[in-house]
Design goal:
By secondary structure, the chain is mainly alpha-helical. It has one domain. The chain contains 4 helices and no strands. The mean pLDDT is 82.
Length: 117
């Protein structure tokens, strides 16, 4: 199927179009660099341009557009780890490990800190 001349011609056309789009993206990057923007806005614009260009490279030249199941799986896994990393610090807010409890004697280290002053 991949050796079909029409399919090869279509693939070459796709590669050339993405190559041209990357060239245009590079020209836009250079043009935006010549316009002196505020730093936060310049970073945002640069990240948007880089994301678009990187997505084109990954999807076409790295053939990730044919791996939708793996891509969606990795995105779900990334989102899951993001949520876990966000909520781990929140779960420790009510943690009493290492804190003195009212009515109970403080640890030896806390007692030494209070007697030195």
């Amino acid at each position: 199927m991949h050796s079909d001349p029409a399919e090869i011609k279509k693939s070459v056309r796709t590669y050339l179009m993405i190559g041209a789009a990357l060239y245009v993206g590079t020209v836009i990057t250079v043009a935006v660099n010549q316009v002196h923007l505020a730093v936060p806005f310049a970073i945002t614009v640069a990240l948007v341009i880089a994301t678009v260009k990187g997505s084109m490279v990954a999807s076409v030249f790295m053939h990730l557009s044919h791996e939708k199941k793996w891509i969606y799986g990795s995105l779900v896994l990334t989102a899951l780890f993001f949520v876990v990393l966000i909520f781990v610090p929140l779960l420790t807010l009510n943690d009493t490990f290492g804190k003195a409890i009212e009515g109970k004697p403080a640890s030896h280290a806390e007692h030494m800190q209070h007697t030195e002053h």
